[in-house]
Design brief:
heterotrimer, A: alpha+beta, Arc Repressor Mutant, subunit A, 2 domains, two-stranded antiparallel ribbon, 4 strands, disordered C terminus, C: 243 residues, mainly alpha, 3-stranded antiparallel sheet, 8 helices, 5% strand, flat
Chain lengths: 184, 184, 243
Amino acid sequence: MGIADLKQIVEALLIASPEPLTDARFRACLKDEATNIPLADIISELETDYTKSRRAFEIKKVASGFQIVTKSEFEPYIKGLFSKAGKLRLSQAALETLAIVSYRQPVTKNDIEAIRGVSSDSSLRTLLDRKLLEIRGRDEGPGRALLYRTSTEFLQYFGLNTVKDLPKLREVEDILSEEQDELL
Amino acid sequence: MGIADLKQIVEALLIASPEPLTDARFRACLKDEATNIPLADIISELETDYTKSRRAFEIKKVASGFQIVTKSEFEPYIKGLFSKAGKLRLSQAALETLAIVSYRQPVTKNDIEAIRGVSSDSSLRTLLDRKLLEIRGRDEGPGRALLYRTSTEFLQYFGLNTVKDLPKLREVEDILSEEQDELL
Amino acid sequence: MDKPLRVDLEMFEGPLDLLLFLIKRDELNIYDIPIAKITRDFLVYVGMAKELKLHSAGDFVLMAATLMKIKARMLLPQDPDGDEEIEDPRTELINMLLEYKRYKEAAVTFEELERSERPHYYHIPAPWTAEEEDQTAILEDVKLYDIMLTFQYLLKNYEEPLTHHVAVEEVTLSEQAGYLSSLLQTKGKISFLNLLERFESRLIVVVTFLAILEMLRSRQVKVKQSKLFDDLLISRGAEFGNR
């Protein structure tokens, strides 16, 4: 197998791989058509191609392998892909916080942190910034803590009319506990 | 801004975008440097480039946008990237459930089960896990049941541009006349 | 039985699928299904299901019951005067079969699409790390289902400490009966589904349901339901208030 074919295979792998491509993984994909050419050599051939043809992407070597990334000069445009108007992208921490507020609202920061077991300041801030949560009133208790609840934008995003329309825990269990159907 | 520059920007966006690039999203990314050239025109220029330079990938029109996919001939190699011999195929039950949701959406679990005549919890769960379906709001009826509909991932998975691209569901009369023919 | 049954019930997606198979196998006219014969064949398969650990077995049994009901209705004498056209008892079943068949066919189309899309792999971009995102894993895009899963997951891990704070709920039948009476006193009618939404735990729901049954027996309440599995409407009964 010539380097031209190997170049194509490596390119396909780079495009399809959900994580950086390592030499070991590359060899595992080749199967019978083993080659002695190191992955790094094929990569550098590809890099030359990309520079020559003025591609908007390049190959980046990260600790674990190689991956295709856009050139940094295009960052100002790419930002637009991930702007607020786009799809909801949240960290695990923010998602957890959002889930607790959705089902327990109105809720204080303390309540959230009691369930998550970790400080939730920064995820609360992110969710407020993205207008998924809002602050509404204060707790009756001694601390008079701020109460958080989901916003109208949150409901709209998920196509819900009111908070009551969220899937109930009972319904959640129904969906999650298939397989346990009794047998005859 | 010339088409050469636009081509590079579009390429960068295609490489960076986790979902199909739509014309609207493309324009949102351009900001001040607006252009009248339709995204589709720039895409077709890029496609010509990729064919000429024998790239291992191509551009696919899917879910009302464009996305980079590997060419089918590289499947045997790409398979090796994923632990379970390539992609997991959907079961017959999941396919039936998906068919009902896609033609009838939005639809409740009851509607699905009434048509299939069999409990569909487990296929619903599979389809939700694989993000091919999503929960969207509640039925207006007395039970206020959860409503299901197909997702963008559904369109991607089946390579469809919109739900309208689905082949028309056969009419009962057609099925019947075929049945009669078979009997004769 | 005229043909050997060498087919496994697990091959079928459900009772409708099995019926379609029997119709095709015996080249039956779907508009004029010999109900006695098909019921007999169907029951043989369901008999096999008892040995199989088939989790949709309940749906097969339900269909068997439906078939037997249709069979019984077909035996009833027709209206002798003939002034009213009596609907064929099989009509509903035929409609169900045809409707199911449409989607079963559509499923084949989806399977073909799946196969033709299989060799293409979408480019998966490296995670985008904008400066303001300090968080670790950024979820691609969030669906309502993710919110449900996350809350359920959190709740599972949290259940332990929670039980330390909250005393075990003790709820008795007479307490719930008293609660229902007071609600009926002010409202007149209660929807069962709305009632359920007030209760957090399964235990309370169960006890409340038992209380309703008890009150129904002693005619303190009346319960109406427009169709099977519909909401229950609870109202005051003849003996309401007399305990």
